[in-house]
Amino acid sequence: MGEKRDDSTDGWQRREVAKAALGVGGVSAALALAAPATGLTKVLSRAFTGEVYTEGTYLVDENGERIRPTALEFGEQITVFPETHPGVEDAPTLLVRYEESAYGSPTELAFTVNGYAAYSKVCTHAGCMVSETEDDGTFVCPCHFAKFDPTKGAEVTGGPAPRALPQLPITLSSDGFLMATENFEGPIGPGGE
Ligand code: FES
């Protein structure tokens, strides 16, 4: 299955590590000192339940460009962000695209559009960024190797994560871009059960 290289991850991590060190963003954060596969990896120390997306928030790529429904082929994925939201504007989100028929429970199909589904990128185990992907599209967290199935609601399929990555309800805006219809359907990061 094809995979679109996500060049934003390292740059995002560098920016977020710098922000964490400065205490910017209002999100409690600490640095991961041992992230075997990726080096520096931001860690959220607790679940974040504040609003990241609200109704009508556009999804944007690492360059701030809004996402057209033709952005990804089926089987590809990228990291996207809420266009504007003070304090947590860089909150990372995994955007994937599959044929509608590829999705199964507990994916909330009402939260998908044109084959796109979106999930928080923050691991529910200890808050590292879920920045790796296996050939079959499975998300892998590089810190302790939790695995999540993006076609089944990002449910846990391996490793120590206690719960799925929360899904973001998305739709198409009237001007033809992907946007959120509300915030993530659960808390971001570790804890929050
Ligand atoms: S932080 Fe992701 S598996 Fe531990």
Task: Outline the structure in words.
This protein has one domain (8-180): Rieske Iron-sulfur Protein. The protein has one helix at residues 8-22; strands at 29-31, 42-44, 59-60, 77-82, 93-97, 116-120, 132-133, 139-140, 147-149, 155-158, 167-168, 170-172, 178-180. The chain has a five-stranded antiparallel β-sheet with strand order 3-4-5-6-11, with no helix packed on it. Helices cover 8% and strands 22% of the residues. A hairpin with a 5-residue loop joins strand 12 (170-172) and strand 13 (178-180). The chain is mainly beta and 193 residues long. The radius of gyration is 15 Å and the shape is globular. FE2/S2 (inorganic) cluster binds at residues 123, 125-128, 141, 143-144, 146, 159-161. FE2/S2 (inorganic) cluster is lined by residues 123, 125-128, 141, 143-144, 146, 159-161.
Gist?
With 193 residues, the protein is mainly β.
Strand percent estimate: 15-25%
Structural class of the secondary structure composition?
Answer: mainly beta
Strand-and-helix sequence, N→C? HEEEEEEEEEEEEE
Oligomer status: single chain
- Domain count: 1
CATH-derived architecture: 3-layer Sandwich
In what order do the strands lie side by side in the largest sheet? 3-4-5-6-11
Number of helices: 1
Low-pLDDT stretches? 1-40
Spatial separation of the terminal alpha carbons: 33 Å
Report mean pLDDT, rounded to a whole number: 80
CATH topology: Rieske Iron-sulfur Protein
* Helical residues, percent: under 10%
Taking all Cα atoms into account, the compactness measure Rg is 15 Å
Largest sheet: 5 strands, antiparallel
- What ligands does this structure carry? FE2/S2 (inorganic) cluster
What is the highest CATH level, the class? Mainly Beta
Shape summary: globular
Number of strands: 13
The CATH homologous superfamily: Rieske [2Fe-2S] iron-sulphur domain
